């Protein structure tokens, strides 16, 4: 049977509707939610992402600051900008678009974002809090993956979840969130042996490898829920996921498309985190 599609567009629209309501709620309490997005240089993909984030904010009544800095910006200049935003009470969330130019120490910049404004959830404090299950800003893509699994009505507890990829921004946090939801989790990476067999035993398979069509139909357990995080641009300019969608659709029960899947929900989750940052400043 053909898999059902986990529709990122539909879920993101729903999320945005809720964000618009929340934004009104905050404004009625004199809190005007605002996200500052900092883009250094002119990476075309980053420009597209930033434009999308700003547009989402506008649609949901969230204010935004679109800060563009030239590629030659020094580490000190960028740090000074982040500190200025950190001190600005009108700014609730700070997002520094990655990747940064090679001469800038990304870690030092992320570390300079105060945890309460780190809506991307990349700072060590937020990552640590997530590990121990304390309230925090969960990184947007991992949070989106969980929401998409839950949207299928699938019970995560007790399931075997396999996460393909162990990056700090996707693989590791997704795995941690799945453990917190009581899944039994296996993390696979480039040194994993018997990768195909492990994937084929997954009730829930989250793929974040960065290789188009890496997961083939024989790596999918019949009835599995498949979340494809990968975004790969082919020579034809088209976006493809890490999963061979056509083949996987014949085996999975649910699957996310690319485009139209995790990417859209990731953006919507950023709105949620920004609004949560603003909500924390409401004087009860
Ligand atoms: P990274 O390159 O940081 O990590 C890739 C992971 O895949 C690594 O852990 C690597 O293993 C593993 N890997 C690579 N090749 C193989 C292989 N042959 N066999 C097994 N494992 C392998 O990527 P990211 O996590 O940042 O991103 C992954 C994908 O998700 C990309 O396509 C990216 O564009 C996309 N993405 C999408 C987002 C969205 O909003 N939808 C957000 C963020 C990313 P090892 O650690 O051993 O090197």
From TrEMBL:
GO terms for cellular component: cytosol
Q: Which GO terms describe its molecular function?
A: methenyltetrahydrofolate cyclohydrolase activity; methylenetetrahydrofolate dehydrogenase (NADP+) activity
Cite the annotated pathway. One-carbon metabolism; tetrahydrofolate interconversion
What does the entry give for GO biological process?
L-histidine biosynthetic process; methionine biosynthetic process; purine nucleotide biosynthetic process; tetrahydrofolate interconversion
Q: Spell out the subunit comment.
A: Homodimer.
What is this protein for, i.e. what is its function?
A: Catalyzes the oxidation of 5,10-methylenetetrahydrofolate to 5,10-methenyltetrahydrofolate and then the hydrolysis of 5,10-methenyltetrahydrofolate to 10-formyltetrahydrofolate.
What is the designated name of this protein? Bifunctional protein FolD
